[in-house]
Design a protein that fits this description.
Blueprint: E1 9-12, H1 16-27, E2 32-35, H2 42-46, H3 49-65, H4 83-93
């Protein structure tokens, strides 16, 4: 619950732009309030850029294991992704 009754700076939206603006105002000693109807971090952090990059990275890792044999690496014949376990870890990270 907010106890302050006066703010110097109001930020509407807790995405990366709103968070950046709020932090910058705070560095100047301003009292900052933020209004966000969903999760802090916005679309990029929660459902866009960050989840996409995590998904892309695991796909890249799996694809590159196919090249291991060409470099003499043994024991990585047929890697498989446990998607439910991966998704759980991804969601925790986000």
């Amino acid at each position: 619950m907010i106890k302050e009754k006066h703010f110097d700076f109001l930020v509407i939206g807790g995405g990366s732009g709103g968070l950046g603006a709020a932090r910058r105002a705070a560095t100047f000693g301003k009292r900052v309030a933020m209004v966000e109807g969903k999760a802090i971090g916005g679309t990029c952090v929660n459902v866009g850029c960050v989840p996409k990059k995590i998904m892309f990275n695991v796909a890249t890792f799996l694809e590159e294991t196919q090249l291991f044999r060409d470099y003499g690496v043994e024991g990585v014949e047929d890697p498989k992704l446990d998607f439910p376990a991966f998704k759980k870890r991804r969601d925790v990270y986000i």
